Task: inverse folding
């Protein structure tokens, strides 16, 4: 007999009256005049399959703050995922990202960022990095926007599997496209990253994310997200990739 209990909580933190709770990843490029935004969620899943118990925890926090003149943007993302059985952790991952964005011209911005992440299922379990670069708004229409960015990154990669730690100088180039029709029946966003080593261009990573949002009401939406990650050269001298497809629902308060 299988018993399954699922709890999903959207956590709304106390904020100022002009603050908004929004999906930053899909709304950041569309809400140019919004100074503060925050989105947080938590999910817990408990499964009992004839005595074999599995707990799953998912938590995420995203927040963005802009200066009064809208030239400075402070952006933070944090997430945590744990799948735990009686005998072991089946999955344990976390991700932290902080970014500062400064508007130089109408289409050009300076970016600086810090990032730390851990995934026990990958050969490179832990990666920390710091970076600096430029972001260009190369197209802006009523229902379509596109950004391209290029950055220098200094990173640390650690692998418990082979007990190695590498320090690398890496380039990061990304392209972001978003489309939101006037009908507001759906919106799509796609981001592609390409990150080669400066000293060896054959050693690179590709990160891809595609997101589809379908609003069913002004405050309620369903969504689908596809993520793909590829590493051409791991510490084991092998290729590695991961992918996942997520479906969910969320609320927006504005």
Result:
């Amino acid at each position: 007999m299988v018993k399954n209990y699922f709890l999903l909580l959207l956590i709304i933190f106390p904020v100022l009256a002009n603050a908004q709770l929004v999906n930053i990843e899909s709304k950041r490029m569309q809400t140019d005049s919004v100074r503060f935004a925050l989105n947080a969620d938590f999910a817990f899943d408990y499964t009992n399959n004839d005595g074999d118990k599995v707990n799953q925890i998912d938590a995420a926090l995203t927040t963005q703050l802009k200066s009064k003149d809208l030239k400075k943007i402070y952006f933070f993302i944090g997430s945590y995922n744990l799948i735990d059985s009686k005998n072991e952790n089946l999955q344990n991952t976390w991700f932290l990202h902080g970014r500062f964005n400064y508007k130089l011209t109408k289409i050009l911005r300076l970016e600086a960022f810090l990032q730390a992440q851990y995934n026990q299922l990958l050969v490179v379990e832990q990666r920390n990095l710091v970076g600096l670069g430029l972001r260009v708004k190369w197209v802006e229409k009523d229902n379509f926007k596109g950004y391209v960015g290029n950055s220098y990154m200094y990173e640390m990669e650690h692998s418990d599997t082979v007990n190695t730690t590498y320090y690398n100088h890496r380039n990061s180039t990304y392209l972001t496209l978003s489309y939101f029709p006037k009908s507001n029946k759906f919106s799509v966003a796609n981001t592609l990253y390409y990150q080669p080593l400066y000293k060896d261009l054959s050693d690179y990573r590709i990160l891809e994310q595609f997101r589809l949002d379908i609003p069913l009401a002004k405050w309620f939406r369903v969504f689908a997200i596809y993520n793909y990650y590829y590493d051409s050269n791991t510490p084991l001298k092998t290729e590695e990739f991961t992918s996942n497809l997520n479906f969910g629902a969320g609320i927006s308060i504005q």
The domain at 2-251 is CATH 2.40.160.40 (Porin). Confidence is low (pLDDT under 50) at residues 1-27. The chain has one domain: 2-251. The two ends are 43 Å apart (CA to CA).
